[in-house]
Amino acid sequence: MRKYQQLFIESFIALALFAGASYMYINEVAIFSNINKKLTDLFFHIRGFEPASQDIVIVDIDEKSLRQLGQWPWSRDTVATLLNNMTQAQVGVIGLDIVFAESDNSSPKKVFQKLKMPYEKAIDYDEILANTFATTPTISGYTFDFETTTKRGDVPNIPAIIIEKDKENNDFLPQAKGIIANIPLLQNASYSSGFFNTIPDEDGIVRSVPLLISYENQTFPSLSLEILRAITGAKKIVVNYTSVGVDSIVLGDIVIPTDRFGRLLVNYRGYAKSYTYLSAVDVYKNNFDKSVLEGKVAIIGTSASGLLDLRATPYENIYPGVEVHATAIDNVLNQDFIHKPAWVESADLALLLTLIIIITLASYLAGPILSAFITICCIYGFLHYAYSLLLSKGILLNIIYPFVSAILLYLFLTLIHYIAESKQKELIKAKFAKKVSKAVADSLIKQGDKGILEGKEREITIFFSDIRGFTSISEKIGSPKKLIDFLNQYMTPMSDIIIKKEGTIDKFIGDAIMAYWNAPLDVPEHANKALDVSIEQFKKLEELNKIFAKQNLPAIDIGIGLNSGMAVVGEMGSEGRSDYTVIGDTINLGSRLESLCKQYGAKIILSQYTKQKLKEPSRYIFRELDCVRVKGKQEPIFIYECLGTKDFELVKFDEKELYEEALGAYKRGDFALAFESFKTLANTYKAKLYTLYMERCEHYLKSPPTDFDGVFTFTTK
């Protein structure tokens, strides 16, 4: 009967998880959508670089060009010379990732007008550029404003015919509020023009580009789309709609799959400068190989940081905006798309359900090790399938929901098994609930004084140790008898070390040990003895792990927390069921310090109170970890990591000077310097502590604290 109850509970959890994940997926919960995009970005990094089209060239207004031709904007006759030289090189088509929203005030005609001199025969640079637009294969650029209703210049007159098929009342295209266009003289001289807006995702990364934007009840094509239309000679742009938005955009024989908002998911080739770049000044001076431009698509844009046309992409945070447009054109010309077909949502949910069913059945039918293996294989298989589908077909599956749901389901089911096993163990433990340590028993026999059991306040040093990843270890061992034998092999020598150094073992909490010094009897130098025991246990653990390896048993790693202070000690509990134990804030803090070992990647953490009690502290190697407020405490304390002694080093600490400099910068609130210092340490020494401080500094750089006092407050135990 209990087996069926277990199946019912596990099935209920699985169905609830599937329902919750499906609801969040359908409603596109922002936080999970953003994480999913990050995971997809990782696929691109794993894939590596792909060759860029040789038919696309970027004429770059780079730093070199700005140095030689002067700061931007250049005079319009300079731009005209640039376009004419490109045309003479028999370029196929020119796209301008630039807008000329104002007249050229450096034009002689404008200067003469301002000086109130005869200007009828003076040269007008705008007219020169307009004539160049009319005689060269140039497609001009402009930009839409999504924040304000700014309107500079006339609305462009696009020669393309845009047909929207099966469009319902909803307009899924991005809706612009304003426009910044070229001055009418230039706009009217252009064969055509296109907007060059790039709209980043919420995390600032440009993963897609809009191919169409709606403005004042008209639909306008992007610069990339107009360049493609010019290349193909298509007269019409057909937009295919479904009930949920845009499905695709058709140019002649080319079908461009888009998302529901008419955006093309950009299949980036790699880092910046993947395409052929020509410096604008070299083209201006006719100092370039003409064959590079012959018959090619050329886009004029900038990589200069001062001109603010740099974007963040899945590959890097500084990427020329002009190359985003080049990549979009490349994707269409080579039919190398990333897209989400209409059936992807159904496929995502089907994959999610399949994973949940397999993991639930494995948990119910198989043992812990086999079910863990099956879960890992399922997750790996799904990720491999999603990655292969992206590379081979360009189809983008949702990753986050199946991935996280599989992990959470396994953890939930494992927890249920663990709780069921724990209840069974409690029935056995009840027979051995009464425990008195050997030290207490010996004191009672020797002194014959029952007063020693009465509650009193004493200064003690408390010790907590805990096995790391014990649940995973128990699953690997499998057999309960083997697990008990395994724990006994570990607990026995650890307990002997504590007792030998005059410590009192309070209790065993599963795989954890709680002990203390200086009660019930006085123990001189109790802080030193507690620390010596901690180091001695790690020495012994090295020997034990060698024995475990020969027995094909998993290795053990532990964390230890030490604290000194006043505590209430004595016989406590109910009548007929009591134990000699210790209570108070000192014990709570010691427990917190042990749990902090995981976060800081430390083996032994002691409080400032224990360190202050040490005799001859120079015998030990210390590293200051942090100044913290643990949950439930207002007073900050300094915590330290003991790295061993000069005779037995738990961890090498050759980087002491570098670490202290980095920690000093952090305490001063110089988070930028601290971040770089900890990054150097993390790259060299691979310590979790340095990664933790990197993340903390990065958080403070993004959200600077108002009154940083160097104290970190923990909100959880």
Write up what this structure looks like.
The chain is an alpha/beta fold and 717 residues long. The chain folds into four domains: 2-46 and 341-423; 54-333, no CATH class; 456-652, Alpha-Beta Plaits (2-Layer Sandwich); 654-707. The longest helix is centred in the middle third of the chain and has 30 residues, at 400-429. Mean pLDDT is 88; it is low at 427-437.
Write a compact overview of the structure shown.
The protein is an alpha/beta fold.
Unreliable stretches (pLDDT < 50, length at least 5) are 427-437
Total discrete domains: 4
Rg calculated over all Cα atoms = 35 Å
| Secondary structure: number of strands | 27
- Residue-averaged pLDDT, rounded? 88
Dominant shape: elongated
Number of helices: 22
Please summarize the sheet with the most strands.
9 strands, mixed
CA-to-CA gap between the ends? 38 Å
Summarize the amount of helix as a percent range. 40-55%
Strand content: 15-25%
Quickly give the structural class: alpha/beta
Which features does this protein show?
single chain, 717 residues, alpha/beta, Alpha-Beta Plaits, nine-stranded mixed β-sheet, eight-stranded mixed β-sheet, 27 strands, 45% helix, elongated
